[in-house]
Write a structure and sequence with these properties.
Family: Belongs to the MotA family.
GO biological process, one term: chemotaxis
Largest sheet: none
Number of domains: 2
Main location: membrane
Radius of gyration: 26 Å
InterPro entries: Flag_MotA_CS (IPR000540), MotA-like (IPR047055), MotA_ExbB_proton_chnl (IPR002898)
Structural class: mainly alpha
Pfam families: MotA_ExbB
Strand content: under 5%
Number of helices: 9
């Protein structure tokens, strides 16, 4: 579970809810027609922008904003160096006995075990990497579109409410409550975009970057293992994926060991 996403969304919603409850009360801020315009209208407009599979796929991908975990980069490098050492000593077939938890890495190692040429291995893994990026990218696009459409639908709802209010001005006492209801759609649209859709879109973009980076590391390692590269060279190559401060720490530790 990604605590940053969970805490951020719950915290933002909690602050808004607290300010409402400490004010006039929750009843004033609940209006079914306004919710229908903003939520229902936004969903239908975004559906018109994409196809059904992309729209449904985005809903499924949204879970990655809350529950998604890649292996630690240093731990993954250690695992890959171990695999490289085993392959160099006993051959690629020895890798069949190793249990690998990450599906992408496992499929790449299996390609080596099956004896495919390097061009084929690279093409298959790069294709899988591109498709994974594409799924994440479309999910982020759908939620970005919801973030753009939500406030616009809120403004449309407000204009509808204002037209209805101005067409019935006989009772001055009704103008205040009618104006409040009209403004609720703007509030709903802003909340939908700022507190839900845009944070999820940004988090999916972050997931896409993180996963692409990890898959690039795995591909480099798999191809180097297939070439029979020295495990120490592979480790040095893969450590370029670490943040600079961790690379310096690793280099310092190696120097002390030497």
């Amino acid at each position: 579970m990604d605590l940053a996403t969970l805490i951020g969304l719950i915290g933002a919603i909690g602050i808004i809810a607290a300010s409402i409850l400490l004010g006039t009360g929750a009843q004033v801020f609940f209006n079914v027609p306004s919710l229908l315009i903003v939520i229902g209208g936004s969903l239908f407009v975004v559906l018109a922008k994409f196809n059904v599979s992309q729209f449904i796929g985005a809903i499924k991908v949204a879970g990655r904003a809350f529950r998604f975990k890649l292996p630690d980069t240093e731990a993954s490098i250690s695992e890959l160096v171990e695999l490289a050492t085993l392959a160099r000593k006993q051959g690629l077939l020895a890798l069949e006995e190793k249990e690998i938890s990450q599906p992408f890495l496992a499929s790449g190692i299996q390609l080596l075990i099956d004896g495919h040429p390097q061009e084929t291995v690279k093409a298959i893994l790069e294709k899988e990497r591109v498709l994974t990026l594409d799924r994440n990218r479309w999910g982020a696009k759908v939620f970005s579109a919801l973030g753009d459409v939500g406030p616009a639908m809120g403004m449309i709802g407000t204009l509808i409410g204002l037209v209805q209010m101005l067409s019935n001005m006989e009772d001055p006492k009704s103008i205040g409550p009618a104006m409040a209801v009209a403004l609720l759609t703007t509030l709903y649209g802003a909340m939908l975009a700022t507190m839900i859709c845009l944070p999820i879109a940004d988090k999916l973009n972050l997931r896409m970057t993180e996963e692409a980076r990890m898959q690039a590391l795995w591909i480099d390692a798999i191809l180097a293992i297939q070439e029979g590269t020295n495990p120490r060279v592979i480790e040095q190559l893969l450590r370029s994926y670490l943040p600079e401060n961790k690379r310096d720490k690793a280099a310092g530790g190696e120097a002390q060991d030497a």
